[in-house]
Design goal:
Length: about 70
């Protein structure tokens, strides 16, 4: 992290697998699924929250990944 007068520059560490907590938010669940495309071993907590905006999201997502 580098602090400047009018900026804060943060260099993130590498992403790694683990549980992606959604906090019951369908937007976070969708984001976790997308991140899981490039980060191995991501487990999205309660993917069912996506039914709020797309009722069959888990099924549709699975069919896209085949």
């Amino acid at each position: 992290m580098v602090e400047e007068e009018s900026a804060l520059h943060i260099t993130p560490g590498p992403l790694h697998g683990g549980v992606f907590h959604t906090y019951e938010d369908h937007r976070l669940a969708t984001a976790g699924a997308v991140i899981g495309l490039v980060v191995p071993d991501i487990e999205v907590e309660n993917i069912a929250t996506t039914r709020k905006t797309l009722p069959d999201f888990p099924g549709l997502w699975s069919s896209l990944l085949v």
